[in-house]
What does this fold into?
Amino acid sequence: MENPAILPEALPRPEDDGAAAHLPGLILPALALPATDGTPVSLRDLPGRTIVYAYPRTAEPDRPPLVPDWNEIPGARGCTPQACAFRDHFAELRSLGAERVYGLSTQSTAYQREMAERLHLPFPVLSDEGLGLARALRLPTLEVAGLTLLKRLTMIVDDGRIAGVLYPVFPPDRSAAETAAWLRANPRGA
It folds into this structure.
C-alpha cells in the first residue's frame, strides 16, 4: 500500500482548462458549510483575508485508493501532502495577512474530521458534500467512481469576494508555498 503522504514520481500534471478563470472578483454565495470544528462557516460573511484550498479527497488510512488508476488522473493524487503543507505553512500564511485558512472538499464532515485530527491540522476543513458551493461558483470538478470531486485550487478571499485564484495546483505539496508567494506579491490594501 502506498503512503499517501509521499508523492510518487511522474504524476501527470493537470492542464489549465480555464475552468477557474471566471472566479476572481466573484462574491461568494451566502451559504453555510459545516466545518470539522463543529461550526457552520459562511465564507461570504468572513471579514478580512481567508485562504480556501480545495482538493479532491484525502485517502482513508489502510484502504486502497478510490479507483486503481487514481495516480494517473491529472491532479487527483496529493491531497494529504497538500493538507500537510498548509499545516506546515499555517503560521507563515497568517503572518502574511491570512486571518484564516480552510480546506474544502466534497467529503463528509465526519470523514474530514478524522483526517484533520490524524494530520494535526491547525485549521478547520469545510464540507461541500451537497455541492452547493461548487455549483454556485461553478468550481472545477471531476467525476470519479460516480462521485463529483473538486479539482485542486486555492482561492484567496477578501471580505467575501474572491481576490485571487491559483489553478491548476501542481505539485500539490507546493500549494501552500505558492499561496504564500501570492500573498507576498498581493498584500491586502495594496
In short: Residues 56 and 159 are 25 Å apart (CA to CA). Helices lie at 79-88, 90-95, 109-118, 132-137, 175-185. The two ends are 48 Å apart (CA to CA).
